[in-house]
């Protein structure tokens, strides 16, 4: 099943130009075909094409499914963008496929990348959501300074994945009873010791992602997966 993105479908029964082109020209849908749309906020729509125009495909909504393919937890990830932007974009795509609700790029003391093309990241979030049949597209926040983020974010569970020695919980166990989680992953050089102390004093829990030393983007994927697994285990 292919999903098309139409954020204003209930007020404007048209596919955006890019989606219309893909639907009519690439996939060769025609008038009378039944297609499926998402609004990016969690609802999936079954609709009939009533005018197969390659720039303004018009549709008629047949049915709506709220909360389509939704996961039973909320995950907000705050991750320091990698120097090699391809690695960060790979993380964004795969974390979205696993299950992601909100993403905040963070700027840390050892960050090697401090700027992002947010429009490109938004396109990756949308594409990955459609590919994985998620009706909700993760929210992308502007880049935030580390200290501002840790002082301002709120969630039932706040977790900081870092590599320093000391008492840490395995993330799978730490979030076992948490349905609303924030997980922070640092840059290639890890968080600074001062940043770790600030996060812990602000209510974050230090966590481990396993015995291996992971790249930033790999750590982000592992963290997203562990939160998803913890949610599944709670349902057993």
From TrEMBL:
Catalyzed reactions: uridine(1498) in 16S rRNA + S-adenosyl-L-methionine = N(3)-methyluridine(1498) in 16S rRNA + S-adenosyl-L-homocysteine + H(+)
GO biological process: rRNA base methylation
Signal among keywords: no
Cellular component terms per the entry's GO annotation: cytoplasm
Top EC class, one word: transferase
Ribosomal RNA small subunit methyltransferase E PUA-like domain sequence ranges: 15-61
Subcellular location: Cytoplasm
EC number(s) stated in the UniProt entry for this protein: 2.1.1.193
Annotated InterPro entries: Alpha/beta_knot_MTases, PUA-like_sf, RsmE, RsmE_MTase_dom, RsmE_PUA-like, tRNA_m1G_MTases_N
GO terms for MF: rRNA (uridine-N3-)-methyltransferase activity
Residues of the signal peptide: none
Domain of life: Bacteria
Residue ranges of every copy of the Ribosomal RNA small subunit methyltransferase E methyltransferase domain listed in the record: 73-227
Keyword entries, A-Z: Cytoplasm, Methyltransferase, rRNA processing, S-adenosyl-L-methionine, Transferase
Record-stated family: Belongs to the RNA methyltransferase RsmE family.
Protein's job: Specifically methylates the N3 position of the uracil ring of uridine 1498 (m3U1498) in 16S rRNA. Acts on the fully assembled 30S ribosomal subunit.
Name of the protein described by the UniProt record: Ribosomal RNA small subunit methyltransferase E
């Amino acid at each position: 099943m292919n999903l098309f993105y139409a954020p204003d479908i209930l007020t404007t029964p048209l596919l955006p130009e890019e989606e219309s082109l893909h639907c009519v020209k690439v996939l060769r849908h025609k008038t009378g075909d039944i297609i499926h749309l998402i609004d990016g906020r969690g609802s999936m729509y079954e609709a009939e094409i009533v005018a197969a125009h390659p720039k303004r495909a018009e549709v008629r909504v047949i049915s709506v499914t709220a909360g389509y393919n939704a996961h039973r937890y909320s995950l907000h990830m705050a991750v320091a963008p990698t120097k090699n932007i391809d690695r960060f974009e790979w993380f964004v795509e795969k974390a979205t496929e696993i299950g992601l609700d909100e993403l905040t790029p963070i700027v840390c003391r050892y960050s090697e990348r401090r700027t992002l093309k947010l429009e490109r990241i938004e396109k990756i979030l949308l594409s990955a959501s459609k590919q994985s049949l998620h009706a909700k597209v993760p929210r992308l926040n502007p880049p935030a300074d580390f200290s501002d983020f840790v002082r301002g974010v709120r969630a039932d569970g706040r977790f900081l994945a870092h590599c320093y020695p000391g008492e840490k919980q395995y993330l799978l166990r730490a979030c076992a009873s948490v349905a609303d989680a924030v997980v922070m992953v640092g840059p290639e050089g890890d968080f600074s010791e001062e940043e770790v102390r600030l996060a812990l004093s602000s209510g974050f829990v230090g966590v481990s992602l396993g015995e291996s030393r992971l790249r930033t983007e790999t750590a982000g994927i592992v963290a997203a997966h562990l939160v998803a697994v913890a949610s599944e285990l709670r349902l057993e």
